[in-house]
Amino acid sequence: MTERAPRMTALDAGFMHCHVCKKLLDLPARHEEKASCSRCSAHVHPRLPNSISRTWAFLIASIIFYIPANTYPIMTVQKLGEGDGHTIIGGIIALLHSGMYPIAFVVFIASLLVPLLKMLGIALLLLSVQFHWQTSAHHRTKAYRIIEFVGRWSMLDVFMISILVAMVDLGGVAKVYAGTGATAFAAVVIFTMLAAISFDSRLIWDNVRNKDE
Amino acid sequence: MIAEMPNRRINEEAPVLACDECDLLLYKKPIRIGQKAYCPRCNHVLYESKKDSINRSLALAITGLILFIPANLLPILRLKVLGIEHGATMFTGVVSLFQNGMWILSIVVLLASIVIPAIKLLLVFYISLGLKSSRNFPRLAQCMRWHQHMDEWGMLEVYTLGILVAYTKLIGLAQVIPELGLYCFVAVLFIAGFTSTTVDEELYWEKIEAKND
After folding, report:
1. Most buried among A209, B79, B103, B138, using CB within 10 Å?
2. Using one digit for the tens of pLDDT, what is the confidence trace for A28-62?
């Protein structure tokens, strides 16, 4: 690699950029001043305000909801008057028993693996920023992008239930009801998405300035 | 490609931007259509130039909006078991959840699968039309801002996977027939996906700013 001059962030140079429309603006004279973007009139901050504590708050909320999401049934299948509750894991096992391996695998990834890895990933990102870990900023940025991208796919089970509830409505013969676990699971997904949105990825790079680039 | 700031002085003439993900300050270089500009430090896509962005986005938004009506009103799947037939539209899923008493869940499904994708298409339609027309369209910047905030919360593609999982779960137990609504829905899914790739956000913001001046 060729030698290059020290790199400069917008913040170093006295700028901040609008998170919505990407316009570059001058930093406000006083730090507390509320600034809004001249182009899209969104509130602008050099870094997202209280990013770390907000992200922790959403993350902790999602961890709390993760417990009822997995212990309560996400749906109840009623056949000839007899109810049968399914948890998330129960649903995956039922798919395996009926030989639907590819679909069981997809549901396993979307509903079990992704939320867990996502919560773990966000926690590690937060800790790495708070304790100035010197792990590669490239890897952490990549991890952040993956976390941001995969989050929504966990809604799979929630949508699947809404379709089943609508379709399997055959009076006394068979009926599907949504369970408490489904609401808790939707909350897990929404809170982890909010956590990912409130995390400011620029904090990763603020830590490693001029070192690991 | 993008050039880094050579030193701590900024050339006032050249357009400057900051990377969204790592805040690196960069000179903006014109790129050819179909090209993307990446951040040299964190590899984030800074901006990309798209062919005939406004016209294409407008056309796709209109198509999507038209197809949205049958996709939501016609049944997606029909269940046939023991001589009983039962069809489900996207909306009956929401209604059945609501009748179950799962009103939080029904609102989540309603927003993610119907309301937000529809509003996003409407906003692209309005903004694109506003930028093409010489007349004054009010609140273009606000609409664009909303469009960007909604980006992650429309989940048509996840819903589609939900349909697939529900289908495989039912197919062993009963006869499941895909209906016309499903084909319209898949078409909307693709069109909504294409629309988000044809909207050149950088160009849209520049045009909105020019219009407001």
Report:
1. B79
2. 776 666 788 888 888 888 888 899 999 999 999 99
Residues 112-151 on A with a CB inside 8 Å of B are 137-138, 141, 144, 148, 151
Between A195 and B10, the higher pLDDT residue: A195
pLDDT tier at A67, thresholds 50, 70, 90: very high
Domain A50-207: which CATH number of 1.20.140, 2.40.50, 1.20.120, 1.10.3210:
1.20.140
> Which residues of A are less than 8 Å from B93 in CB distance?
162-163, 165-166
Please report, rounded to a whole number, the percentage of residues in chain A having pLDDT higher than 70. 92
Residues 80-139 of B with CB under 8 A from A: 81-82, 84, 86, 88-89, 92-97, 100, 102, 104-106, 108-109, 112-113
* pLDDT for B7: 47
Query: How does residue B12 score in pLDDT terms, banded at 50, 70 and 90?
Result: low
Give me the total of CB pairs closer than 8 Å, taking one residue from chain A and one from chain B.
214
Min Cα distance A39 → chain B (Å) is: 6
Strand pairing class (A174-178; A82-86): unpaired
First to last CA, chain B: 30
Angle at B159 between CA B158 and CA B162, to 5 degrees: 95
Domain with CATH 1.20.140 in chain A: 50-207
Rounded alpha-carbon distances, angstroms, from residue A9 to A50, B20, B30: 20, 11, 21
